[in-house]
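Annotators were shown the component list below and the corresponding predicted structure, then asked to write short factual statements about the assembly.
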Amino acid sequence: MTQVACLKDTDVTDMECGLELGLSEDEYHRACEILGRTPNKVELGCFSAMWSEHCSYKSSRLHLRKLPSTGDRVIVGPGENAGVVDIGDGEGVCFKVESHNHPSFIEPYQGAATGVGGILRDVFTMGARPIAAGNLLRFGATNHKKTPHLLAGVVKGIGDYGNCFGVPTVYSDVQFHPSYNGNILVNAFALGIVKNNKIFKGVAQGVGNPIYYLGAKTGRDGIHGATMASDSFSENEEADRPTVQVGDPFKEKLLLETCLACFETDILVGIQDMGAAGLTSSSFEMASRTGAGIVLDLDRIPVREEGMTAYEKMLSESQERMLLVAKKGMENELEAICSRWGLDCVKVGVVADDGMVRLTSNGEQVAVMPARELADEAPQYDRPHNARPTADVDERITAIKRKKIEDVLHTLLQGLTLADRSWIYDQYDREVLIATLADGQKSPASVVQIPDSEKAISLCLVANDWLCSIDSYEGAVRTVGEAALRTVSTGAVPIGVSDCLNYGNPENPEVMHDFVQGVEGLAAACRALSIPVVSGNVSLYNETDQRSVHPTPTIAMVGLLSSSKKRTSGCLKEGDLIFRLGPRSDSLEGARILEQVSLENVRATLHPWDFQELRDLIKLMGTLTNLGFVRSAIPITAGGTAAACIQLCRMTGRGINIELLGPDVMTAFFAEDKPGILIAIPREKEDAFLGNCDKVLTEKLGVAGSDQLNIRHESATISYGVQDLIRFGETQVERLVARKESREAI
Amino acid sequence: MTVAVITFPGSNCDRDCVTVMNNVVGVAACRVWHGDTSLPAETRAVILPGGFSYGDYLRAGAMARLSPIMSAVHSFAQNGGPVLGICNGFQILCEVGLLPGALLPNRSGRFVCRHVRLKVGSAPKGLLAAFKPGEELTLPIAHGEGNYFADEATLGALEDEDKIAFTYIDADESGNAMVNGSRRSIAGLVGGPTHNVVGLMPHPERRSEERLGGIDGLPLMQALVGGGLS
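Structure shown to annotators:
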């Protein structure tokens, strides 16, 4: 048994215990200083959870301040459960993306499911009814032994939770790379609609107001999950399995309806989800935000196991639980709503005014701690960061140019980079709530109608980890750029971003450098495009046996369409003209097809995207979609112009004839180093279209035909039947997962 | 007149059905709580919506069968009142015995959300009178337990009595649905004294407006209140 496990709740701890719970020596000393005495076991547990990387952002906070978080539309910025951006008519969109990487690697089904549950709670805690969900997933190599099992489990976990809860999962981005072999990424996103004058926050206010516990009972699952999420993996991560929570989407649905019913009334003062670090983080944060105090009687916490200690109750991460502060005198109304939905709703404490969190158990006081010092004054670190050496030339470019164009294209079509994701999407209910106008399979970004309104929102999740592993700054810039191009391709205007920063061990100066560069890249791009970052999360220590994942800043971008009728339809008619908007890419640096030579990227300095060029392009797309000129639009990203052409054919079921110029065929087909969009416009609109393009370089590439994709370059021509293109893409994901099933059959 | 859409704990298509009846079909509809013991007096039709009543615990629809409102729904149906069970609602209709058979987990073991081609049965009447025999339509499905099962005798009787409302067009060599394994590719059934009870796994309410990709489901939603009962 470990040192901490031997102690009783009120036993005094020592430095050994602090180290065991993940605190540094300095942090332990600081904890003693704050209390003016040595913390007991319960108190040390609270310090450990609140000062974990996951809860305190102690390595990242200094840098996160660089992200722009203000703007005319911002109603709630970072720091709350989720951000809120104004969409007019007194309504806002409330959204956030969050990681659940560590639990999903240990137990993919429950880990992913509870990731979805957590992010949905973050959104409806604010008073918003969730209307859309999405995710971004990164798995290890396609031939790695764990990949099929992890993929199948994560997708089923996400699907089962969202489907039962009743929110459409409309966007999914899934890629594979060996850097994720020992540490997959599961980033879950949710978005809801809220009345701007009915936004709820996690605040404890009003001395004497009762504090209620609402939802599922507390068990021993997930104890110290936040601390685990702040640690690296070693090979025996299976031992961590008991720290993964178990989800119950049915309970969550009841919780949603109960909370929304409460929001309709005048009962609540504040509300907060018991997410990471459970009762500890919710109580400390609610008290800290207002400077109030909180007194909790832990004997009143509903439990599902006998004999739980105060320590366990405070640190459990059992799911589907909320902490509420109600108005005094409204207790009966609250209890009536909760009992209608059959949920436990128990008064567990009261708001005080001394800035302290006081816990009692078995009738005696077991902890007294200042809320603010634990919630907001965790030690902050400016960790050292050093650039990695960069290479001047990527030998792979020469190597790929020696290959035959037919072979490279064929390998691209056979691989997973562009493969059809139906096997994944089909497990997600994408149409519940009858508002989905386009999911991420049929559109560069999903489009969802806002209830009882002409308006619609777009959403997409983008992580350009391939580029970030080459140049973490420019990769982050282009991640924002790609998300913006996806957004405007649907006809929407970008209005806000949530970010999820997935990196390795911040104590490694090179990883820390990637992180700092990544934040600065995001900040520069969001500032240049005037898109505020309103919510987000940081996930560090994504490494196994000292091997870090690719730097992976995920961007979830939300766009607004003033009318859903302005949405780009995503069809193609024979005779439509195909143009590229934006400059022609002229270098294979950073091109995704280099993976065909080697999956190991070389650190380099990528050619920087020109923000003015990007802004002009975004503005032009806005003008064109407003005029109704755009039939289809697809950003030119991984796989270059050729890949965009393939996707256009697959999405519309129609062929195109394209002529590409450029110094060599490989560059003409596959370069992706400048911002560009492939668009289709009706032939009769050509003159009017060109009249609007004065600031943006455009190039006419060809015309929509019947059932063939033909791409010509002066040195080669390739041809595919559209039905073949569709068929090629269909089975890769299924075959990958089938490897698991055939092994299970043996 | 009112269409009563029953809300069980875990229903998640109840609001969608109310929206379609109110805004598209143009009749008043309201949600009725599962714990109530009677339907509103002016009820002209009942919808058991999709979702995961009671979290699908035990078996999809098995717990909802015991909800207080169900005996009122049962009598309403026995008296010829139009009842439409969609997805989880179909599962509940089978559990309460208003329709025969059961819905098992999909043959693939996976939830499936997809647009499927369907064929109307050979002699549509009652709630199905708006359809032509053998008419084809496309509706979305979204379910984990839609694999229709009944014994051979029941299946034979369903066929003989023209009670197979909809079948999936894509079938395997044994005649079972490719998409979920349903016997005889059954996607929906009709029953009740005057063919007034319809249960189906696909979601007609999700195909009742052009902006959502088509209106193949609208005739069924309209049939609930627009006569069509023979």
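Statements collected:
1. Chain A has 26 helices and 28 strands.
2. Chain A touches chain B at residues 156, 159-160, 163-166, 248-251, 253-254, 340-342, 425-434, 436-437, 449, 564 (CB under 8 Å).
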